[in-house]
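Quick start: read one record
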Amino acid sequence: MSGPGAGHDPGAALAAAFAKPPARLGVAVSGGGDSTALLIHLADWAGRAGRPDLHVVTVDHGLRPEATAEAAAVAHLAGRLGLDHDVLAWRWDGQGNLQDAARRGRYRAIAGWAAARGIADVALGHTADDQAETVLMRLARGSGVDGLAAMRPVRRAQGIAWHRPFLGLRRAALRADLEARGIGWADDPSNEDAAYDRIRARQALEVLGSLGIEVAGLAETAARMARAAEALAATAAEAARRIAAVDAGDVVFDAAGRAALPRDIRERLVAAALVWVASADYRPRYAALLGALGAVAAGRAATLHGCILLPGRAGLRIAREARAVADLRGPATTAWDGRWRAAGPGLTGLEVAALGEAGLAACPDWRETGRPRAALLAAPALWRGPTVVACPAAGLHGDWRFTPAPDLAGFLAAVTSH
């Protein structure tokens, strides 16, 4: 695994990052200097090692008129290297923060592209400079251990292992390599726009160097925080084995057991449960998490991250929020809400959707399940037109079930991976 202090040897960084190379590796290339360098060095390394099979992808965000030409330049370079190349389109809907929306949209698009091609691993061109900038931005937000761990060398999300083999290498050295080879790259003018937090962090690093706050030190801090986060995650997983249960896809924490845990572990478990129940890619913002936990401590239900937190005498239940899945409906033969799939006879003509108020009224035995009404409203149900025919969580089974049933093992994996 590459990291701070690795020097400048891209080949060694790649060999360390891919000690067991995948058979197929996706490479995300924007056309900028960092990702272009990644592509060039991956092609060199894979050629020497005889593996893996490289596939190049570029996401065109449609935000600048130059983007199409930049994608074409990447395609030309990939062709020179004998590699296939795909361009994916993403367009902003005008909602939320542009940079955050573009980042999330880019990852979703690449994950879909990779899954369609049987690619389980994708390489990204982030460098030690990106890591240091991220640490500074997280410091400004008051982040804890996980936030200051910043970008991990490998992160699993959306069914893909995202690799950052160059986190120990400097941006300037990689671009010097490109210049020496006579290979150009595209410069995005937004990289000079101080309206963006990352650019202000980049500019701040130039000033902070006089205080000894430099890229290498910040990257080393991130590496240490990552090790601390791994230890805390392991502790949280062990605690979850003792105090957590999974019931009809909800996570339920024993009240006394949760109260006895250190605060950080309690928060970590709840955040992991929110991510797992909602099939989300990221944890909720820490301030929002604290607000929800404050309501829970006062005995009130709270909604967060597409979930509902339901405190009770026996413990805290984290279930899907009904409003988050109210409009989610599809054929019974397809997956629903990222984790439910119907099984049983005669699925043709049936749809899967949340149980909702109307469905719950058609489940006379729902109280006997012991599950809260608010949780059951979001439970997956099979419908034939306006009639609910099955909702196992609410005691209406028929001949159908939902599989694979989310279980404690799945939640424990989520605790350690987020």
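The longest strand covers residues 53-60.
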